[in-house]
Amino acid sequence: MSQSNNRLSRYDSSRFRRKFNVLLWIISVSLSVLVVRMWYLQVIKGDELRQRSENNRIRINEIKPLRGTIIDTKGTILAGNQPCYDVSIVPGNVKNVKAVVKMLEDFYRQEGIDFSRGADAVDRARSFVPIKLAKNISRRELAVVETHSVELPGVSVEVIPVRRYLMGEMTAHVLGYVSEISPDELKSDASRTYKPGDRVGKYGIEKFLDRFLKGISGGEHVEVNVSGRRVRVLGKVDPVPGHNAILTLDADLQKTAWEAMEGKVGSVVAMDPRDGSVRVLLSRPSFDPNLFNQGIPIADWESLCNDPLRPMENKAIAGQYPPGSTYKMIIAAAALQEGLITPDTAFNCTGSYQFGNRTYRCWQKKGHGRVSLHRAIVQSCDVYFYNVGRIVGVDKIAEYARAFGLGEPTGIDLPGEKYGLVPTREWKLKRFREPWQLGETLSISIGQGFNLVTPIQLLNAYCALANGGTLYKPRLVERIETIDRQIIKEFKPEVKAHLPLSKETIELLKYGLWGVCNEGGGTGGALRRKEADVAGKTGTAQVVAMKDDRKSATGWQFRDHALFVAFAPVDNPEIAVAVIVEHGGHGGSAAAPVARKVIDAYFRNKAANGVRQQAAAQPGNAGADQKKATESNEVPEEGD
Amino acid sequence: MIMRFDRRLLFNFDWVLLLLVILICGIGLLNIYSAGSSIASKTEPIYVKQFFWFLLGFVMMMMCFCVDYRLINQYSYIIYGATVFLLLVLFFYGEVTRGTQRWVVIGGFSFQPSEIAKLSVILALSKYFSVQEIEEDYTLKRLWLPFLIVIIPFLLILKQPDLGTAMILIIIFVSMVIFVGIKWQSVVIVVTSGVLLLPLCWMVLKDYQRERIMTFLDPERDPLGSGYHIIQSIIAVGSGGFLGKGFLKGTQSQLRFLPEHQTDFIFSVFAEEWGFIGGLVLLVLFLALILWCLRIAQHSRDLLGTLIAFGITMLIFWEVLINVGMVLGIVPVVGIPMPFMSYGGSALVVLMMGVGLLMNISVRRFMLSP
Questions:
Q1: Is the ipTM above a cut-off of 0.95?
Q2: Which one of A429, B197, B272, B347 is most buried, counting C-beta atoms within 10 A?
């Protein structure tokens, strides 16, 4: 078989011959260019470059930007940066790493400081990556290193700004915390602006505003000598510090509320009903956000996660509770607006309500007698609302609850907000594959049963009522500024919706709420200030389902949740507060005093600020003739 | 008849090609061993991983060798379609690594479809050009279909974003078009419109890509960012000197001074440790390989074989030229790996499959056509 016979006769590659020849030259010449370039770099400039690589090592150091500060509405700093000192060693720059570390330990021993940290970490192949010997050393330890710096080649001290939360636990849930970026976060970072090792906001405002707060890294290109000391800086790009965030939060009020909740589990939220600005937002128990700065020890993290009181949960936006009697406002609003009752419609309360073969109790065992709307709100009469709720019906109640913004996140600028729950017939069918029972309507009429609200939802709903019918999106961030105070972004108040209620309905309800705090027999007597300007509503959320005698369940975890929502001054409200005390018992006794402290502090601060307005606000017009508050100081207990 | 094992496959086997590839791969593995010695890996070291990829590549190479390339050619468009499909899957569901979607993960085994696209495009273009029964040069009218073949994967890869691989596709396309012949009038039209469209391309580029090109033009512009790569790479190569610092003795490229040194900047590790002599030997080996492949293209029995062999040769040639040029600071920093040398499984396996095709074409020129 000769080669020529095997060739296909039709194909003649000779038409490409010229091209192949040209190509041969192109390839040979271009690879020769590479060789010439290599000759230039390695032979002609070889010595010079070798010198640069051996004696003077050029290193790139990232300069992290300062994270923007977070400031409250009055200018108090909530989160800032503090310098922190880390000691590291570059093993590749030292002949005997162990000896140097030993020497460092000896210097410390002379000063009476135990310093045996990190010695084992050094036992690695020679590398030019600095190894941290100790993080966050004290000033005394710093002095030791600095004094002996000449005798400690390769050892250097880095100054690292560390995030500091000045109010610690108090603002932990609002501000959140920062820590090192996780591999998952790096992967999903489409903007390519984060690098491994970066600190990012993981929670709260730190997370929500991370892109404003973080700033832009700078860097420097430095020459270091054999022992790792800097010789000179070749080039430097300054970091751009992060922007400052100004919140609507009021640090003084936050502190007052925090102290008022001492020893309690739950949440306090306060807002300005005029524009939805959040003044207080806290959740107890809390955690120390400063723990996360340098990486939280695993044991601490686990104990935070395993705590049955869930300190990592922001109960203000993620805690879902039955609203209890605070829900009665919704029932009343629906009934009035739909024309199903008039303010004078009255029902007789004998202490219980018979439906089918079940007895639905009023919290007042002896009964309230014949009550109409106003007194029913004031005394929080359950039987009255069983009757009204039955007339209104579950789906109408749901319609109004949604109009008040319940059952969906309020849209506050914090990650992790929950939906709450507004039950309807359709929902029940879908969820349980069972039709709605009329008895369940009775339960939701007094805020028990399926319905769930978060404290922020509840407060926002009451704010809408307080300001005359405008539902705002809670606003936590006022604006973002550069460090030289130029405004980058302003967060204006946002109107979400308007309540579908007439002016008369709103006034009637507000008057009822005023009565709760200021009339005899009202359940919110704890809020009776001498100005008689507070309106509010108590609530008690059952933890254990209906029992004949609930007092028999004595354990703390079986006690009811106490709720209280209030706003003041009643005719032109500036501050509204919602308090939830988990397992606190009755709203009037456990939650109302907390709300009172916040409201008192608000007006005290305002007066102190010299923005004094007319001291005593007038109660609502509707209540003009009944504004004489009874003198009784006893706090009536409220029950189921 | 084609699938049956033929003794002539062994008798006429292209031992030179195999030897050259194994030699280069061996140097590559040794070099990755050195480059990876400073990387603390949680799993096995990268040279072990690369060795397994090499074994897989060897198996794939033999598969591509055994099946007659004319039979493979019948499936060229299907292979091409499957590749585009993979790129689309990636486009919608790809795992994002540092802002780019390049990996498809199937059962813990991840690979880059963009690497496969290089080979698929060569096969598809070869198929298209091999059936055109014309003797004169091509006009633009007859080039729109091959242009479509290349532009679809090009755009999908550009979007990942992987400028380097996308560019390689275009370069292969242009090389092949010039090879089969194009009318000079058409060249004028393309070049003029290209110049006019250049500003538009600039706008499509991502910020970091623009930055890289700007930095190449003026490395001092950004000594901390991408200019850093170029400066450090030049120091690493230059400090190797004539004889090199010795195996495992490189300091510049070992760590920290040169990021990504095991992938795109692998040649600087080699040049630092083995010096000018080492670099010269390696480049001569590559030159021998490329010229040998070119010879296979020239002596193929049919146009199809010539085109496939030519395409694969060009792939190897351009990747070597651009990658080494980049390491030596005479070409902008674009993400193009060095063939057979850079750490990365997909690229190695695909290149070895290409070599398998070359062996395939080489051996069958001695065999009778059915």
A1: no
A2: B272
